[in-house]
Design brief:
alpha/beta, eleven-stranded mixed sheet, four-stranded antiparallel sheet
């Protein structure tokens, strides 16, 4: 056989293999092509640009640190619930933020899924207000979620007709005409730093370093792995019943990039890595005001624990719960190490820390207690999906041990950070943010009765004072709850209060009229049961709602 014929035969074989992979293994093919297009280098040393050698004279602006966990349930912390496995996984370092500062008893996420919530945090605006209504996902991921599942009473719905309306994955992010808090703080002389998850666009105009961050280190899309699954220092728990988990084990990687450079493996457990890099960034910037956005990917799936953390929880007998608890343990340790670094550098008294989660715990974990006592999960607007920890600590300025009843919202980080830096919020657009500082510093301000909105397709929610109305298109249903007497949403009052439902639907309609068309459509809708996790048997009497993503 000649070399030319051999080469031609090789090309034919590769094309045939590619066709088979495309036909039967689309996710594997996407992964293979991604590795070719965007290779991953070996572990690299990260150097953070150093600020001045000495601190400035006189009073300096306060530093600001926003710490965001990923899919953390309200019951996962011993400050806001019982903790994992009924308290077998204490979270003393995160609890200390509440004990030494303020805890908002009603903290709300910007959405019930990841990237819209992060868009709200970064902009101070409802994400739907600028078309960021749905979580950014690749088409292959959406198709994977939409595969029929035997035994399900309510199957996923896929919309192939919408594929032509989808931008590239890289362009699914916060538009460049939006003002981020990083841009605002940078304009006030802050060094702006990002460590961890982004998920707000990967194209050059949407990346952290072009949206106001001087330096960015982390993953641009999705959650990523915590270690290679065959690393001797990792303990894995795979969720064979979950299509999201299967996708992450195939597609995910323990790799990051610095300021748009080549991806590289981190070389240690991801949660610890983010902590250590955040501490290095603090050290490099100790002599100038900085804003640090520390976005952990814990405890999002895939469930991977550091072996030492797993072994420390031998009292937990269930393997999956133990791995999850070990992930929470690493997250809590990281928060403690960041606070210790501030104290070491003499920055503790001049730093505001805000801790929250992007949304509630996920239904696909198969862990029933993560959002107790609230109903619902990530991907629902029941309290379990949007009720998140919201803790603020600023020694000397926020009196310790405060409990604030007024609802706080992800939107409010923008207004709070802007006020702290002495910057005004943009006046050329509708802003939805509230400055929370008056409610936690000095003389307590009057509690505000707020009207808050959430929307994902035809699933819409308004909370006005103590009343909360949820309206869904699939199933066509309304839920009305009095959160003052029924905070866990057990009693649906919609049929008994038709006039209130009508009035609150009018609020939703008025809010909808302010919203533009989504930048991209939802390709898949999935039925999420309100009261049971994904691995529970399906029964006809289970309440559910379709989530568009």
């Amino acid at each position: 056989m000649t070399k030319a014929r051999f080469a031609a035969g090789g090309v034919v074989f590769l094309l045939a293999a590619a066709f088979v992979a495309w036909k039967f293994f689309p996710i594997q093919l996407v992964t293979m092509l991604d590795r070719i297009r965007n290779p991953i280098a070996e572990t690299q040393e990260v150097v953070w640009e150093k600020g001045p050698a000495t601190p400035p004279e006189g009073q300096r602006p306060p530093n600001i640190i926003l710490i965001v966990a990923d899919d953390l349930g309200i019951n996962d912390l011993t400050a806001t619930g019982t903790g994992v496995a009924n308290g077998l996984v204490p979270t003393p370092n995160i609890d200390a933020l509440a004990r030494e500062g303020a805890q908002f008893d009603t903290g709300y996420a910007g959405s019930a899924t990841c990237s819209p919530s992060r868009a709200a945090l970064m902009t101070g605006r409802y994400p739907a207000r600028f078309g960021f209504e749905y979580t950014a996902v690749p088409k292959s991921f959406a198709r994977n979620l939409a595969a029929p599942v035997p035994g399900r009473l309510h199957q996923p719905i896929y919309h192939p007709e919408r594929e032509g309306q989808m931008p590239t994955l890289e362009d699914m992010g916060v538009p460049e005409d939006q003002v981020t808090i990083a841009e605002l703080l940078k304009g006030r002389g802050y060094r702006t730093l990002h460590v961890g998850k982004w998920h707000l666009g990967e194209s050059p105009k949407m990346r952290p370093e072009t949206q106001g961050f001087d330096e960015s280190l982390g993953i641009m899309f999705g959650a990523g792995k915590f270690l290679s699954e065959d690393d001797p220092d990792v303990v894995n728990a795979k969720l064979d019943y979950d299509p999201i988990d299967r996708f992450l084990w195939i597609f995910g990687t323990d790799a990051v990039q610095k300021n748009g450079g080549q991806r590289f493996h981190v070389g240690e457990y991801m949660t610890d890595y983010y902590t250590h890099q955040a501490i290095a960034a603090i050290d490099a910037n100790r002599n100038r005001p900085f804003f640090l956005y520390l976005a952990y990917n814990a405890p999002h799936t895939p469930l991977q624990a550091k072996r030492a953390d797993y072994e420390a929880l031998s009292a937990i007998k269930d393997h999956k719960t133990r791995v999850y608890g070990a992930m929470i343990r690493a997250l809590d340790r990281g928060v403690g190490e960041v606070v210790a670094a501030l104290k070491k550098q003499g920055l503790d008294d001049n730093t505001l820390i805000i801790f929250t989660s992007d949304n509630g715990g996920a239904w696909y974990l198969g862990l029933p207690g993560v959002n107790e006592p609230y109903r619902g999960w990530k991907a629902t607007f029941f309290e379990g999906g949007i009720r998140v920890p919201f803790l603020m600590r600023w020694p000397g300025q926020i009196a310790p041990g405060q409990r604030v009843a007024m609802p706080a919202h992800h939107l409010d980080f923008f207004g709070t950070a802007a006020a702290l830096a002495g910057a005004g919020v943009p006046t050329d657009r509708k802003m939805d943010t509230v400055n929370l500082l008056p409610f936690v510093t000095g003389t307590p301000a009057a509690q505000q009765e707020r009207t808050l909105f959430w929307r994902s397709g035809d699933y819409k929610v308004v909370r006005q004072g103590q009343w909360k109305l949820q309206v869904a298109g699939k199933p066509r249903k309304a839920w009305l709850f009095d959160l003052a007497t029924d905070p866990t949403e057990k009693v649906n009052l919609a049929e008994r209060n038709p006039e209130r439902v009508k009035a609150m639907k009018a609020l939703l309609s008025a809010h909808d009229r302010e919203m533009p068309k989504p930048i991209w459509p939802a390709l898949v809708e999935d039925a999420i049961r309100i009261d049971v996790p994904l691995d529970a048997p399906w029964k006809a009497d289970q309440e559910y709602v379709y989530w568009a993503n």
